[in-house]
Design goal:
alpha+beta, six-stranded antiparallel beta sheet, 16 strands
């Protein structure tokens, strides 16, 4: 849930992904208190505005947010008010970067997280603690998290005083791991271009069954990884478009339980999932579709889009039709960092069924 919610709150600390995450943090921090009550209702309108939400701890409401009070519209809100309220209420906060999701990198993104935590109201020392001692305490790691005799000697030396200006953590002078100094070797310049892909048929689903479907790169994807209740089932039918002997049947249910529910099938453009490629030679993502007269969705993933995919809607009736998605018409998508597509159910709640065939990069 945390990763997807964070996509609604660009420019906010990741630990403030949304008030649901705040409730999770509070529930974790006060797990030993049977009287703890966590209550929240997240209601997104067409403009992605949070209507109401509360977090109550030990009978006392510590966060109460209504529309317009610190959470988006869309990509622009200031969710730091939520982090500040949780911090003021004594809820432990842990720094996190959400790596390796698009736009986040292990290690490096924590520096930005520290900056945002300070912006939310933590002191530089408290932000540093959220990235060191606090996680060690939360996860019971007694051998690290502090500079003390008998602890792991994993250390960094910075130029400047990070207890006064947390941005000083970015100016590294030395690194030690297990007590041994690690020399920083700057990588040689690498070509800016990524593997360049050519127009091609991705699959026509003929003779694809069982493990062969997953091996071909088609992966089921739902919001259950973030606590949602949507479901999806994939199977290959012999009744394809234009008399083909194969088509992929995507059926399932878009269910409540997550603010932005989804269910569908994911196809990456590189051998590794969510790895960017150069799709400059590709003008469109194309496939045949047959559905139930509903409006379905395509999610486009690219490095330039960050954690928020672009959404393209298309309709599919009971007869096969050709769906053409020009890459040049997707706002914010830079084809030199394209990663993949998800084809899935409609934006409304309820069961759905969709068939696709002859998926190609044109």
């Amino acid at each position: 849930m945390y990763r997807q919610l964070r996509s609604h709150l660009l420019g906010a600390p990741s630990c403030a992904a949304a008030l649901v995450l705040a409730a999770f943090a509070a529930a974790s921090a006060f797990a030993q208190e049977p009287a703890t009550v966590i209550r929240g209702a997240i209601v997104f309108t067409g403009d992605d505005v949070l209507e109401t939400a509360t977090v109550t701890i030990r009978g006392r409401t510590v966060v109460a947010v209504t529309a317009g009070d610190g959470l988006p519209p869309a990509a622009g809100g200031d969710a730091t008010v939520v982090v500040g309220a949780l911090h003021a209420a004594g809820v432990p906060l842990l720094a996190g970067s959400d790596a390796p999701n698009p736009g986040a990198a292990h290690g490096a993104s924590v520096h930005r997280e520290l900056e945002l935590l300070v912006r939310a109201g933590l002191s530089p020392v408290e932000a540093l603690r959220a990235a060191t001692a606090a996680p060690a305490d939360a996860f019971g790691l007694d051998d690290r998290g502090r500079i003390a005799a008998g602890r792991k000697a994993d250390l960094v030396l910075v130029l400047g005083d990070a207890t006064r200006d947390v941005l000083a953590t970015r100016d590294l002078a030395g690194i030690w791991r297990d007590g041994a100094r690690v020399e920083r070797v700057r990588p040689e310049a690498v070509p800016s271009g990524r593997p360049r892909i050519a127009p091609r048929l991705l699959t026509d689903f003929e003779d694809l069954t069982g493990d062969a479907l997953a091996a071909s790169g088609w992966i089921p994807s739902t919001d259950t990884m973030f606590g949602g209740g949507s479901t999806v089932d994939l199977r290959v039918s012999a009744d394809g478009a234009d008399g083909n002997r194969g088509a992929l049947v995507i059926s399932g249910e878009i269910a409540a339980g997550f603010p932005a529910p989804w269910a569908g099938v994911m196809i990456g453009l590189a051998p590794g999932m969510m790895q960017p490629v150069d799709a400059s030679d590709i003008t469109a993502f194309v496939f045949d579709a047959r559905g139930e007269g509903a409006t379905y969705r395509i999610l486009a993933f690219a490095e330039s889009l960050g954690p928020m995919p672009a959404t393209i809607e298309f309709s599919a009736g009971t007869g096969w039709r050709r769906v053409v998605v020009p890459l040049g018409g997707i706002d914010g998508l830079d084809p030199t960092g394209a990663m993949g597509f998800l084809i899935g159910g409609p934006g409304r709640l309820g069961p759905f069924r969709l068939e696709i065939d002859n998926v190609e990069l044109r």
